[in-house]
Write a structure and sequence with these properties.
It is found in: Endomembrane system. Pathway: Lipid metabolism; polyunsaturated fatty acid biosynthesis. It is a multi-pass membrane protein. One of its GO terms (cellular component) is membrane. This protein has 465 residues and is mainly α. Helices cover 60% and strands 5% of the residues. The chain is built from 21 helices and seven strands. The strands form two sheets. Strands 1-5-4-3-2 form a five-stranded mixed beta sheet. Strands 6-7 form a two-stranded parallel ribbon. Strand 3 and strand 4 form a beta hairpin. It starts with 6 loop residues before the first helix and ends with a helix.
Length: 465
């Protein structure tokens, strides 16, 4: 079915597709200048044809945009937009952009038109009532002030991280660098690093300041100077995860580089194709050797350096170097250069265990599949679960025990998740969407059980299909 359009606009787009439908030229500016009165109308069938690299349309609040060229300049990375090509991206757009009025200035040149009046607002047969109720819930939570930050919370949180850093130096200065003191200092530094990881996550999601510019600045300071990592690397990777969690080929967090096979679908595919990069039926055992201990000290560090070099991201590289300059200045007097790097490696080793168990307890045991084009609420609830609320669980996980609320509302300050949770749960119950809450130990055991089940599915397919 062809889109219903004004004849002159249709002819212009056919004759000059790269000019009229591109990313910000003079013609694009003219195209966007008539956003409110645009007469071009499209069907979902037409929109869904444009879902390939170099030809990508998406819909936001019934407006149709051509983001084919804009993907190269999108601050969140090109892949996030590509994940929604040919789809309705309204809820994802709302979830990730705090100042929508500002963002719409960049969207105007990309506007093609809007959905035809006969077309529903929802694509792929999504539940319109559920989506409307979810958006109403978001407005209700905003009216309740749950998207407003408590400055004291984050001041104290940053303070306790800096206090831990200072405590490690005070202990070394007072008691020396014996084995017992070194182990204690390592635990303290690993705790500071883990907590700084949760804090940078807050700033990365623009959930602290009213002005997102300050979030970006402080994010670079926390992840760069306090942790020795890259803000842009984190942004481009993490927002893909939020945009399509546990979706094969779209969520980088489930890209296990053929080391693990996750969920129920991929193991069978690997087995059927006779792929055996590792003995996956034993992955629940070797996970303990190559997962928690190596993710941060080996894979993340290599990937961060590679990304900064390939993208020529010298600003993040300067922040990265500032961490090591500070660290070596503080610890070389006690351990020397080699000893300081050995200490840091041990700290990263412990932090990596902490990070892996906390971040994966909400996701690996959940549904992992190809994109089913679910609505925002259903997609996030399939891929996430919560861990029981307690003061320790909240602190230990950086409030990521409220993974459901965090995924639904990534810009919500985390100290408000517990207040939002009952209202989210009520909405899920209304529509029969499973809202899952586990104990901390149970969730860790589920990671291993899930890996074991996936390995067995692979072996069965490998031997019999």
């Amino acid at each position: 079915m062809r889109a219903v359009q004004c004849t002159s606009r249709l002819r212009a787009q056919k004759e000059h597709p790269n000019e009229e439908m591109g990313g910000g030229g003079h013609r694009g500016e003219q195209l966007g200048s008539g956003e409110s009165g645009s007469c071009a109308q499209y069907t979902w069938e037409e929109v869904q044809k444009h879902n390939r690299r170099g030809d990508q349309w998406l819909v936001i609040e019934r407006k149709v945009y051509n983001v084919s060229e804009w993907t190269k300049r999108h601050p969140g990375g090109r892949r996030v937009l590509a994940h929604y090509a040919g789809e309705d991206a309204t809820d994802a757009f709302t979830a990730f952009h705090p100042d929508q009025r500002f963002v719409r200035k960049f969207m105007k040149p990309l506007l093609l038109g809007e959905l035809a009046p006969s077309e529903p607002s929802q694509d792929h047969g999504k539940n319109a009532a559920l989506m409307e109720d979810f958006r109403a819930l978001r407005k209700q939570l905003e009216a309740q002030g749950l998207f407003r930050t408590s400055p004291l919370f984050f001041i104290l949180y940053l303070g306790h991280i800096l206090l831990l850093e200072a405590l490690s130096l005070a202990l070394l200065s007072t008691f020396g660098n014996g084995w017992i003191m070194t182990i204690l200092v390592s635990v303290i530094l690993a705790t500071a690093q883990a907590q700084a990881g949760w804090l940078q996550h807050d700033f990365g999601h623009l959930s602290v300041f009213k002005n997102s510019t300050w979030d970006h600045v402080v994010h670079k300071f926390v992840i760069g100077h306090l942790k020795g990592a890259s803000a842009n690397w984190w942004n481009h990777r993490h927002f893909q995860h939020h945009a399509k969690p546990n979706v094969v080929k779209k969520d980088p967090d489930i890209n296990m580089l053929n080391i693990l096979v996750l969920g129920n679908i991929l193991p069978v595919e690997y087995g059927t194709k006779k792929l055996k990069h590792l003995p996956y039926n034993h992955q629940h055992k070797y996970f303990f050797l190559i997962g928690p201990p190596l993710l941060i000290p080996l894979y993340f560090n290599m990937h961060i350096l590679q990304t900064m070099y390939l993208q020529r991201d010298w600003v993040d590289f300067a922040w990265y170097l500032s961490y090591y300059a500070r660290y070596l200045t503080c610890y070389v007097p006690y351990y020397g250069v080699l000893g300081s790097f050995v200490l840091l490696t041990f700290v990263r080793f412990m932090e990596s265990h902490w990070f892996v168990w906390v971040t994966q307890m909400n996701h690996i045991p959940m549904d992992i599949d190809y994109d089913k084009n679910d609505d925002w609420l259903s997609m996030q609830l399939k891929a996430t679960c919560n861990i029981e609320h307690s003061a320790f669980n909240d602190w230990f996980s950086g409030h990521l025990n409220f993974q459901i609320e965090h995924h639904l509302f990534p810009m919500m300050p985390r100290h408000n998740y517990s207040r939002a949770a009952p209202q989210v749960r009520k909405l899920c119950e209304k529509y029969g969407v499973k809202y899952q809450v586990k104990g901390l130990w149970e969730s860790w055991c589920d990671i291993v059980r899930s890996l074991k089940k996936s390995g067995e599915l692979w072996l069965d397919a490998y031997l019999h299909k």
